[in-house]
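Sample entry (162 residues):
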Amino acid sequence: MSSFIKTPIILCFILFRLTVTMGIAFIPSVLLMVLCLKLDRYMHKFLDHIYKDRHKINEKLGNSTHDTFNNIKALKFYAWDEHFEEDILKKKAESLELNKHIEKYYLGFTLMWCFLPSMMSSTGFTIYMGMGYYLDLPMAMEIMALMEHIRGPIHHISHLRN
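Predicted structure, serialized as C-alpha cells:
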C-alpha cells in the first residue's frame, strides 16, 4: 500500500526536479513517457478481445477434458477416445497459440518500460546540449541520478498495468 501512495509522489518530484534542472529541454522526455503510457493503454485495450477468445477456448478445453474424464469408460468401449483426444489437443494448441501471441506483446511492453528511462535520458541530454547549454559534471550527475530514480516509479506503473 505504501508504494501505491509513494510512487506518484516520487514520480512527480523527480519530474519536477528534472524540469527545473533541465528546463524545456526535458519536455520531450516527458512527452515520450506520456506517449508510452498511451501506447500501453491502447495495447491493453487491443488485447481485450484476445483475452476473451483465450478464455472461451480455455473454458471449452476444460469442459472437454472434464467430459472425457467423466465418460472415459463409454469412450473406451466405443473407441471414441481418439476423437476426443484430437479435440482436446486441438483446443490446447489454439490456447497455446493465443498465449504466444499475448506474450509477444508483453515482451514488447517489458522492453519498452525497461528502456524508457534510458530513452528519456538520452533525449533530454541531446536536446539540452543541442539548445547550447553547458553541462558540467555536478549537473550531469544530478540529472543521471534523477533519471535512475525514475526507474522505480516506472517499474511500479508498468506492473500496475499488467
